[in-house]
Design brief:
The chain has helices at 30-35, 37-42, 78-90, 109-116, 176-192, 222-227, 247-259, 275-283, 304-318, 335-338, 350-367, 395-400, 443-448, 453-464; strands at 10-14, 47-50, 54-55, 67-71, 94-99, 128-129, 150-153, 158-161, 196-199, 265-269, 291-293, 323-326, 371-375, 475-481, 484-489, 495-502, 508-511, 516-518, 527-529, 532-535, 540-546. The protein is α/β, with parallel strands linked by helices. It has an eight-stranded parallel β-barrel, surrounded by five helices. Helix 8 links the parallel strand 10 and strand 11. Beta-D-glucopyranose (BGC) binds at residues 60, 63, 100, 164, 200-201, 269, 271, 330-331.
Length: 547
């Protein structure tokens, strides 16, 4: 049977504000994405995921939707989107959009109606609650961005729940009419031909109806939390404000709808410290999510032992479900900075090391069991941009500076042309400054260098397509020994793919099972002498063997 297209796929995440601006307003747009579709197709990816482009006041840069059915004018029109779908499909690319359905903007018509009175048709579409006797909020729940997750509303004389900004009120998924209305919004885009949804905050839809307090987090170390800018959100065990068992039935409703269309996919973002178990629960069987997006490699923790542990843990917990991996996205510092490893005595210039490691991490991402997401700019090996306070746009950074610098450093514009103003991203002032350290990494100059990260990405992902084992989620082994990470993918009997990654600044020689056949991916200088595999520093190898 043919494997579903999304299984093992490489998905390219686009942050549309920063991708490419065609109407000279300093903000990327859908026409910009359309213009760059051949570039995306040449990367060798199978699909694109576009972060929200719906109508929005942009308090959280599109993750606060005020109309799910309209493209925000700053990004273009619905006709542009239809054009984007048609062009993408013409190039063999699937299109996934970002459904931010757990909350809306406070400017959404639903919220305006809901807040108008206690007894209107939509009065229960959001989570409203009376104050405590002393006037304080209904319970101790905290918002991810800091402070109580309850906001007082003068119109209704009640509090409403918001897990993020106060202008992102939480929808009430205990209400059946609301569920039906949300499904209609999904249907709208399915009918337009989208191939799937990335479900924003998929474990936040349902809250505890009784509004019970969350208990304090086990073993809480407040000192270290405060020092790294963590919000009190992280002081709690989130038993009641998210991760509710009641969520499952709603996931099943979404799946039933999506199943009534051909080959569409639901990718759930599951943000939690202990997400692996939820990822398993949410993706098991055939009537929940198709796949869950893992945060495990989006952390500061790093290195082969950490990765082996993360991969094994998720592999155990996910059961017959399907994981999707990422190392960068629009919420965390770019992997080329976050995971940059410099050895003390190395004489190699840092930018060369960064490029070498960017290729290495990309090869690793592509060999993890499941599907993968590549964040725009990762194919260029971009480092996290270094921004100053006056550049900031993200509400998280504006609140948290200087301890928590927010998410703008990974959201700066893509550098297309090295010598053009704003790196050719826009002809106006960009909404967020282009990092001048990114100029040398611009697309046009990388295309001229055969050894560039961009050329590597193109060659590598295209090369990878010949081997169906890269699309497997069947992990046999993942181990780490002396800085060598080894993964083995494939069925119990038959051909398997073994992947080896040298995380050290020195060559490693290791004995591997005999009868292994060494593949020749771009950029690998590994050699196999009988059963001795030698990997130069920060290099990788892939072998096929029969079992
Ligand atoms: C998105 C964030 C956003 C949050 C609230 C997420 O997890 O990735 O960018 O701020 O949801 O919608």
């Amino acid at each position: 049977m043919k494997q579903a297209w999304w299984k093992g796929a490489a998905i390219y995440q686009i942050y549309p504000r920063s991708f490419y601006d065609t109407n000279a307003d300093g903000i990327g747009d859908l026409k910009g994405i359309i213009e760059k579709l051949p570039y995306i197709a040449q990367l060798g990816v199978e699909a694109l995921w576009i972060a929200p482009f719906f109508k929005s006041p942009m308090d959280d840069f599109g993750y606060d939707v005020s109309d799910y059915r309209q493209v925000d004018p700053m990004f273009g029109t619905n006709a542009d989107f239809e054009h984007l779908i048609a062009r993408s499909h013409g190039l063999g690319l699937k299109v996934i959009i970002d459904m931010v359905a757990s909350h809306t903007s406070d400017q959404h018509q639903w919220f305006k109606e809901s807040r108008a009175s206690l007894d209107n048709e939509k009065s229960e579409w959001y989570v409203w609650a009376d104050p405590m006797l002393d006037g304080s909020p209904p319970n101790n729940w905290q918002s991810v961005f800091g402070g109580s997750s309850w906001q007082w509303d003068a119109q209704r004389q009640q509090y409403y729940l918001h897990n993020f900004l106060a202008s992102q009120p939480d929808l009430n998924f205990h209400n059946q009419q609301l569920r039906a209305a949300v499904l209609d919004e999904f249907r709208f885009w399915l009918d337009l031909g989208v191939d799937g949804f990335r479900l924003d905050t998929a474990n936040y839809y349902l809250h505890d109806k009784e509004l019970r307090n969350n208990p304090p987090r086990h073993g809480l170390d407040r000192g270290s939390f405060l020092a790294n800018g963590s919000t009190p959100y992280n002081y709690q065990e989130h038993l009641f404000d998210k991760n509710r068992p009641e969520n499952i039935a709603w996931l099943e409703e979404m799946r039933t709808l999506v199943n009534s269309y051909d080959e569409r996919v639901l990718i759930g973002e599951i943000g939690d410290r202990d997400a692996s178990k939820l990822m398993g629960e949410y993706t098991q069987g055939k009537n929940r999510l198709h796949t869950a997006y893992s945060f495990k490699l989006l952390t500061d923790s790093q290195g082969p032992e950490f990765i082996a542990h993360a991969v094994n843990e998720l592999n155990t917990d996910i059961g017959d479900g399907w994981p999707t991996w990422a190392m960068s996205n629009h919420d965390v510092p770019r992997v080329a900075s976050r995971w940059l490893q410099q050895s003390e005595h190395s004489t190699i210039p840092i930018e060369i090391l960064r490029q070498q490691q960017a290729k290495f991490y990309l090869a690793l991402l592509s060999a993890l069991p499941g599907s993968m997401c590549l964040y725009n700019g990762e194919e260029l090996g971009l480092a996290e941009a270094n921004l100053e306070l006056h550049h900031l746009q993200d509400p998280v950074g504006l609140r948290g500076w200087p301890i928590q610098k927010g998410r703008d450093g990974c959201r700066t514009p893509i550098p297309w042309l090295r010598d053009k103003a704003h790196a050719g991203f826009t002809q106006a002032e960009p909404w967020l400054v282009v990092d001048k350290n990114h100029l040398d990494m611009a697309v046009d100059s990388q295309l001229l260098h055969s050894e560039s990260v961009l050329n590597f990405t193109r060659n590598f992902l295209t090369w990878r397509k010949q081997y169906s084992l890269f699309r497997s989620a069947h992990l046999q082994v993942c181990t780490c020994e002396n800085q060598l990470l080894t993964l083995q993918l494939g069925p119990d009997r038959g051909e398997r793919l073994s992947a080896y990654f040298n995380f050290s600044a020195k060559p490693i020689t290791s004995s591997i099972p005999s009868r292994s056949h060494l593949l020749s991916p771009p950029n690998s200088a590994a050699t196999l002498d009988r059963s001795n595999l030698t990997l130069p520093a920060w290099d990788f190898a892939f072998c096929i063997s029969e079992h």
